[in-house]
Amino acid sequence: MNYRQFFKRFLWPHFPVYFLGILLLIAVDVLQLWVPKLLGAAIDDISLGKTHLASYVGNILLLGLAILVCKFGYRLCILGQMRKSEYLMRDAIVKKSIRLPVQFYEKHGPGKIMALLINDVTSIRIAFGLGMLLLVDAIFLNGLALWMMASQITLALAVRVLLPMPLILLAAVLLGRVVRKRFRHVQDLFSNLTEYTQELFLGLPIIKSLVEEASVARYFATLNEENMQGNLSLARVQAVFIPMMRILPMICYAVSLFICGRLVINDEISVGDFVAINGYIGMLIMATMGVGGLIAVMNRALGSYDRLREYFEWPEEQATDDCADHRDSVPAQAKVRAEHLTFTYPEADTPALCDVNLTIPEGAFVGLVGAPGSGKTTFFKLLLRLYNPPAGTLFINDKDVRSYCLEDLRALSGFVPQEQILFSKTVADNITFPAPAQEQDMDYVQQLMDDTAISLSLQDRLQGPSSKLQEAGTDLSGGQRQRIGIARALYKRAPLLLLDDVFSALDFQTAAMIEESILKLRRKYTILFISQRIDALRDADIIFVFKDGHIVEQGTHEELWNRHGEYYVLYHQQEA
């Protein structure tokens, strides 16, 4: 995303009103220039003994009123429209985050997005809000004030008075580059700190159970120290930059007093001209001091723009070319086939799956077993295209998964991961997510709560499906969260049900109850069940045994048991 694309996407929708604000800002600068002129004329008339000052007072009051109205207008147009652009940027960041592949979050985590939403968007809003005010003042106020000064004294004298100004601009440019570099580093440190803080609070119960509070606190202190040192590094530059921008312009006042003061003594200009010239110098100083702030603001914004550009250029999940024109209806059944499926994770050297071949018919109850890291969950991720398998290696209903639109493909599957994500909403809202309340089938929700033993498990702490959960479901046990996850997948009524070790957090009695409910669905749905509890797969139509990314055995429980192979070893290890 280049500057032009960024402007067109986030600023152009509100640019007409924004441009009106710029015109009002220019009008303010023009009107302000008449105040020193009127004040100088009034002083000259007083020195000559004239008494008709009412007209000067009235004119200055009218100018003040006009300036007030225009200032209110430009703040409303410029700063108000930038709030709307800020909304567009945050909305685009969140929408982009939904379309990003899992690889992004495995590499960056949520901290980067939080920093973009909070810090970087704010920096850009300030740059096009406050920064635009400073820029217009620097161009128009400086230029017009210099022209008005030249009308009071010669242009050569005006240039001599303003001779220190180039030093200010040079210092602003040189130090501004350092500000930009260090600000970007501070943003990266803030991302790391934010991400770790989120993980810390989410994992607090586990940290307490392992008595790791001290080590976690030490690591947090290390990240916090790095963040503090980064901010102090930025502050040291700003500690030189900002005072310098305030001190250097004052040299112009000293030069003005020396040059223009002598002109007054020699009667070459009047006292009123002297007052007007100093008024213009004051305006020039304020505008020039604003240049320092402008450069600091713009350098921060450029650093934020670089981060946003990198974010928006991150490739989204790949969809097929015909997604916009074609959407498959969800079939009643699903069958799965893999042919010589080999997959290696990005930046990994060893394949996670190697030459996998399998066929799963419609309505089958299929078990997948194997040691941790053997490739079972990877197979699920490829079915859902969380990662893209090689073309022509994985099929659902005889159609390459790479040929499906992502929404169509994932509509085929009800996926229950190992760890459940719950929301601070009601039990029914979590089961029917993302369906709105008015579309919820409450009878089916209650049936699923009974089938998955949610009602029985939660009867002491919740009052049915309308009970609200705490944030992330922290008021529930791991097994209770898992049951809600299973009910959520079943509510989807997808023909392919993917269960990733869902019994790991359940007691045997509850697991048997839920397994009985799942087995009733075995002909209605195609069920793929990863389980570390081999006894839960006794009734499976076929079991695939994974080892080091290969399928080393397949068959029913009895067939695999009688072979005395890998399955037999795993079963006995579990029994032991």
From TrEMBL:
Location of the ABC transporter domain: 336-573
Keywords assigned: ATP-binding, Cell membrane, Membrane, Nucleotide-binding, Transmembrane, Transmembrane helix, Transport
Span of domain ABC transmembrane type-1: 19-300
Membrane-related topology note: Multi-pass membrane protein
Record's keyword annotation contains Membrane: yes
GO cellular component: plasma membrane
Intracellular or extracellular location(s): Cell membrane
Gene Ontology MF annotations: ABC-type oligopeptide transporter activity; ATP binding; ATP hydrolysis activity
InterPro entries: AAA+_ATPase, ABC1_TM_dom, ABC1_TM_sf, ABC_transporter-like_ATP-bd, ABC_transporter-like_CS, P-loop_NTPase, Type_1_exporter
Domain of life according to the entry: Bacteria
Segments traversing the membrane: 12-34, 54-74, 126-147, 153-175, 247-265, 277-299
Pfam families attached to this UniProt entry: ABC_membrane, ABC_tran
Stated name of the protein: ATP-binding cassette subfamily B protein
Source species of the chain: Negativicoccus succinicivorans
